[in-house]
Amino acid sequence: ALKLAGAWDFIQDLEDKLDTMVGDRGAKLSGGQRARVSLARALLKAPSLLILDEASSALDAETERKIQENLIASGSGRATIAVAHRLSTIRNANEILSMVDGAVVERGTHDSLVAAGGVYASQWTIQTGDMAGLSSSED
């Protein structure tokens, strides 16, 4: 679970490794480290449904990409719901729901939503500056 969540390497660098006291609520860890430990704890339970609410907001892009690859590789038999404002986080999802004021306004894949030119496409362009980035395999 630690490797899937991208936490193994930094834990190996801690003085007492897995036995390191990290303080109340992980106060001695960075935000990204806390996020990775939280994800590892959730994965350790092997849930059939994993809900991630802005799970990668404290992570750098490279760490986020590695964790996404790990989750995809290990995700068979598990449904994952990801709430995200950073659209790169959900780009390769099987299905994306765009919401405005609590209501679903669009539903589809990254490619279909960008091609439709709606809310998702607008946000994608704002975040990436790339309206031509339609292929999910570019990452």
Describe the structure.
The protein is α+β, with helices and mostly antiparallel strands and about 140 residues long. It has 2 domains: about 1-85, P-loop containing nucleotide triphosphate hydrolases (Rossmann fold); about 85-139, no CATH class. Helix content is about 35%, strand content about 15%. It is built from 5 helices and 4 strands. It has helices at about 10-15, 30-45, 60-75, 110-115, 120-130; strands at about 50-55, 80-85, 95-100, 105-110. The strands form 2 sheets. Strands 1-2 form a two-stranded parallel ribbon. A two-stranded antiparallel ribbon has the order 3-4. Helix 4 packs across helix 5 (about 120-130).
Question: Which terms summarize this structure?
Answer:
139 residues, alpha+beta, two-stranded parallel ribbon, two-stranded antiparallel sheet, 37% helix
Mean pLDDT: 87
In the CATH hierarchy, the third-tier topology of the largest domain is known as: Rossmann fold
**Helical percent range?**
25-40%
Strand content: 15-25%
CATH class of the largest domain: Alpha Beta
Strand order of the largest sheet: 1-2
Rg value: 17 Å
Structural class: alpha+beta
What is the global morphology? Answer: elongated
Order of helices and strands: HHEHEEEHH
**What name goes with the CATH superfamily of the largest domain?**
P-loop containing nucleotide triphosphate hydrolases
Question: What's the quick description here?
Answer:
The chain is of the alpha+beta class and 139 residues long. It has five helices and four strands.
